[in-house]
Write a structure and sequence with these properties.
About 35% of the residues lie in helices and about 15% in strands. The protein is α/β, with parallel strands linked by helices. A 3-stranded parallel β-sheet has the order 1-2-3, with helices on one face. A 3-stranded antiparallel β-sheet has the order 4-5-8. A two-stranded antiparallel sheet has the order 6-7. The chain binds glutamic acid.
Length: about 300
């Protein structure tokens, strides 16, 4: 008989400010999914961008999770301390002959000549793929490093968004894994960290849906199993605006003054279709009625009633 693998979920916040309503929603869904299957939760601070993140924000985040009742079993080291580990995985790519240095500047990459997709992202056209050693030396500056991608479709069943697929060669191009300043990029760090922590399910905001195939490709190269994915909808203000860290009145610093954690959790659960009426509820109680089938995939408009009440 196949051994049943224990579920391991994760929170992977970026400590660059106070959690806002959208972050709380994604964290709640990750927690509910794992806990409703008696799974474990892992916390990891994604602080690769040391300019924007801080240990103080990370501490506040831990306190906010505690206030919400979103418990976790272990915290893995923050990404800013993991450079030497990421080096090891970088060398795996190097040994496979998949890396090459890229000297393109930001403005070259974003120039009108670069092929752009309808969602505004660009496809790297492979400019530096076949430079000769002499051409590389002539730049006299440290390069970023890209991993070659192949012409292959990556597909998976997202628990909320359904079937999703992407051809990395056509829709992304060779990916940067390490920047010219030596900092590893999100896609590599998250793949290594989730893989090493034994994460079996990734639950996060819909804005990261197209990152999943990128991470699946790296998982395969590093020998990690693929986790399952659930990309939860974005929360929108009544006027259709996406909520962001700029909505200061919707960050937890403000929300905590106006409502209790069960009130906030009940509001989110009602907005996404998990509860049929808006009532205070604890994460534990909610985990008993949680089901992905009840969670809608499209954006969630917070109606005027909710908007005024939060
Ligand atoms: N650190 C990312 C964020 O806060 C989430 C990354 C992930 O869940 O993979 O938006």
């Amino acid at each position: 008989m196949d051994e049943i693998k224990p579920v391991v979920g994760r929170f992977a916040p970026t400590p660059s400010g106070r959690m806002h309503l959208g972050n709380v929603f994604a964290a709640l869904m990750a927690w509910l999914s794992a806990r409703s299957q008696d799974g474990e939760m892992v916390l990891r601070m994604e602080d690769l961008d040391t300019q924007r993140t801080s240990a103080e924000f990370a501490q506040t985040l831990r306190e906010d999770l505690q206030w919400l009742g979103l418990t976790y079993d272990r915290e893995t080291p923050p990404q800013s301390t993991r450079g030497p580990v990421y080096d090891t995985y970088f060398h795996i790519l190097e040994e496979k002959g998949l890396l090459y240095p890229c000297y393109c500047t930001r403005s070259q990459l974003h120039s009108v000549n670069a092929p752009h997709l309808s969602d505004g992202t660009y496809v790297y056209p492979g400019t530096c793929r076949n430079l000769t050693p002499e051409q590389r030396e002539a730049f006299h500056r440290p390069p970023a490093w890209r991993v070659r991608v192949d012409d292959r479709i990556w597909e998976f069943e997202d628990r909320v968004q359904g079937h999703y697929f992407l051809n990395l060669a056509e829709q992304c191009g060779d990916m940067v894994v390490r920047r010219a300043d030596g900092v590893y990029v999100y896609q590599l760090a998250v793949t290594v960290d989730d893989g090493e922590a034994g994460v079996t399910e990734v639950v996060r905001g819909m804005d990261l849906l197209s990152s999943a195939p990128r991470q699946m490709y790296l998982q395969e190269l590093f020998g990690f199993p693929h986790p399952s994915y659930a990309h939860v909808p974005m929360l929108l203000a009544p006027d259709g605006r996406r909520l962001s860290k700029r909505d200061r009145d919707l960050d937890l610093g403000e929300l905590r003054k106006r409502m209790t954690a069960p009130e906030l959790i009940g509001t989110l659960a009602y907005s996404c279709g998990l509860l049929s009426k808006r009532e205070p509820i604890s994460p534990q109680e909610l985990s008993r009625v949680f089901s992905w089938d009840a969670v809608r995939g499209d954006s969630i408009y917070l109606d005027e009633f909710i908007w005024k009440g939060i």
